[in-house]
Design a protein that fits this description.
The structure is a homodimer. By secondary structure, chain A is an alpha+beta fold. Chain A has helices spanning 61-88, 134-137, 200-214, 221-232, 257-282, 289-308, 311-318, 323-326, 347-355, 361-364; strands at residues 10-12, 19-21, 94-99, 104-112, 117-129, 147-159, 166-177, 184-194, 234-235, 240-241, 245-252, 333-335. In chain A, the strands form 3 sheets. Chain A has a 7-stranded antiparallel β-sheet with strand order 3-4-5-6-7-8-11. In chain A, helix 1 (61-88) packs parallel to helix 5 (257-282), helix 3 (200-214) packs across helix 4 (221-232) and helix 3 (200-214) packs antiparallel against helix 5 (257-282). The first copy, chain A, starts with 9 loop residues before the first strand and ends with a helix. Chain A binds chain B through residues 96, 110, 112, 119, 121, 236-238, 296, 300, 303-304, 307-308, 314, 317, 323-324, 326-328, 330-339, and chain B through 96, 110, 112, 119, 121, 236-238, 296, 300, 303-304, 307-308, 314, 317, 323-324, 326-328, 330-339. Strand 12 (333-335) of chain A pairs antiparallel with strand 12 of chain B, so a sheet runs across the interface.
Chain lengths: 367, 367
């Protein structure tokens, strides 16, 4: 499948039966039509005017697709770890495979004290539970208490050098089940960047890769999920963004399963392309002990967001997840000082005054 | 008023009208009878068999008592800061008076980089709000959305030396109001100790002072609030206590207002007596960089508890409190490591294996 496409092989609306070739859309279709015949995947259309809703959430197809998601996530974890290890050139990821007493398990991979990476983790988990925890059902009260299945890859990288930003990415798949009712599934994910010393070129690159990953799914996707990222990674009690954003989405089931799955693959696959060039450009920038201290204070904000607001962290802790895997996201060395602030007019003050401001990086770059 | 008494001047049941002198209880009374005449305080009885409930929550008496609580809290803040400053001998508390846009304000006092105290704060706050936040009404759904008034003193001390424990204390007064209904008030508070290198003598001393402060209010008070402290300061996702406990209570309105107020005064006043002798005994113990590092990792647990579970922190952040005053509780330098554990058999391992175990320190000491 060519990179950048969304897997359009042959296309037919499963509802109206019309076949289409290539990525041509028939008159009256407001969205792409997808069909991958022959590999067992049933593919539905999005927004075919003849069908307002096409359900493909039925029967054995569900478990088959869960397996496909799982296979993708395990492979994604492998590829990301390999790319980061190669770049670091010193430390290796150490793997801990674990099982969860209440159901499921995971494959945690952690890197520490590398040449570039001070602490980071790329975790795969697949957990089951009898009742969806409040952090996952807060926005969907109708699902409270349903049995659930959750799969995901989640990563956080904390480099030593304050000139190399911290990065986070996550792709996840949820299924909420109840006897006698159709399972409800959704995807979530995204990636976001947290610099300590902002560089416009890096912010633009990061957002450009995000936009390109979204483009095949509609021109409105990047702006919507970019805005959601700004809203989500907001430290309310500081009235301050956690970083310079990127993409965030959750509760994604407005598209059919295969479009959604193709979308999270596009996001997952884009991470290395978004992050690595920034690491390569900044890893050799010299830094002072004062700049390192600044990074440690800023890391305090990262901890505040993750422990007070982050839905993934709270979901993990509330659902009896593996604490060490969940909290691998916390930075290695952190400072808090009373009413700590950067010197007015300093490069450090510019971080919050200019970079952490929910900017439209691509529009400002004239893209 | 003699130390250790609960302010028994002359006593008369406001319901049955019987007068009593000294601290004699009339036959049939299962609890103390309190009355402070002449200073405007109306005092009710607790558990007089002639009256199952005596309400004194009415009219102007309420606001007058709020003033009395406020005056006590401001004085308590002064006394604690003076005692700690004298002991530290180097740094001074710096005061920030602040107002809260939504109503109320406070007096934050912070000490940093002292001889003994690396970072600490003793904060007074008095805030008002239109709707009680979820952290305060979670256990009292009938009060959700009521207007509220909250007064308190809250302190946390993080010493440099890992042999000196971190200490926390808090006393607070809440009033939830609704037009046309009686205001509902309650007190909360307590103090608890978080050592890095445990010493039995210190744990016993800490709990002995706690028990003595509770004793005039009934023999069951210390064991109940000691147990509540163990339950409350529990880091669920680690299945580990935050420290060696002390006292914790909340929703205290089972006694009349004056008994309750006398009780929180006893707790507030006991803090310095509980903490200072421990600081004095341990402040000169030499320590290694490794012991300091251990302290920084353990401080990570403190952050986890405060940001994920602590009702006071969440109440403050949810009610639009002053972030810097609320988060002064966070330690100055903190570490996290993936799956970080103390060496088996080490002094460090003994902290969790022996000290952080919800022990009955006084019973073990034969007291």
């Amino acid at each position: 499948m060519p990179k950048g496409s969304i897997g359009l092989l042959r296309s037919r609306c499963v509802n109206c039966g019309i076949r289409h070739a290539g990525d041509m859309l028939p008159p009256g279709f407001r969205s792409r039509v997808l069909l991958c015949e022959g590999d067992g995947l049933i593919v539905a259309i999005a927004q075919c005017p003849l069908a307002t809703h096409v359900s493909v959430n039925s029967g054995t197809a569900m478990s088959f697709r869960t397996d496909a998601v799982k296979a993708y996530l395990l492979d994604l974890q492998d590829r990301i770890c390999a790319a980061l290890e190669t770049e670091d050139g010193s430390a290796c990821f150490v793997e801990d495979a674990w099982e969860r007493p209440a159901g499921g398990g995971g494959r945690t991979r952690v890197i520490e004290n590398g040449h570039i990476l001070e602490k980071g983790g790329v975790n795969f988990s697949h957990v089951f539970g009898a009742g969806l925890p409040p952090s996952a059902s807060a926005h969907r009260p109708e699902l409270a208490g349903r049995g659930f299945e959750a799969l995901g890859v989640s990563l956080v990288m904390h480099p030593h050098n304050p000139h190399v930003p911290t990065a986070h990415a996550n792709v996840r798949f949820f299924i909420a089940e109840k006897e006698g009712e159709e399972p409800v599934w959704w995807f979530g994910g995204g990636f976001d960047l947290t610099p300590y010393y902002g560089v416009e070129e890096d912010c633009i690159h990061w957002h450009r890769v995000a936009e390109q990953a979204c483009a095949p799914f509609g021109a409105d996707v990047y702006p919507r999920y970019k805005a959601w990222c700004d809203r989500y990674f907001h430290i309310k009690h500081r009235n301050e963004p956690r970083g310079v954003g990127g993409l965030f989405f959750d509760d994604l089931n407005e598209w059919d399963f295969d479009t959604s799955f193709a979308f999270i693959r596009a996001i997952g696959d884009a991470f290395v392309e978004a992050y690595l060039p920034i690491v390569q450009r900044r890893k050799d920038t010299p830094y002072t002990p004062q700049q390192r201290e600044f990074q440690e204070f800023r890391r305090g904000r990262y901890v505040e967001f993750n422990l007070v607001y982050d839905r993934g962290t709270l979901f993990g802790l509330q659902s009896g997840g593996r604490t060490e895997s969940i909290l691998m996201s916390l930075p290695p060395q952190v400072r808090w000082g009373y009413d700590w602030k950067a010197e007015p007019g300093s490069e450090e003050a510019r971080l919050t005054e200019y970079f952490l401001q929910d900017r439209d990086w691509l529009a400002e770059a004239g893209e």
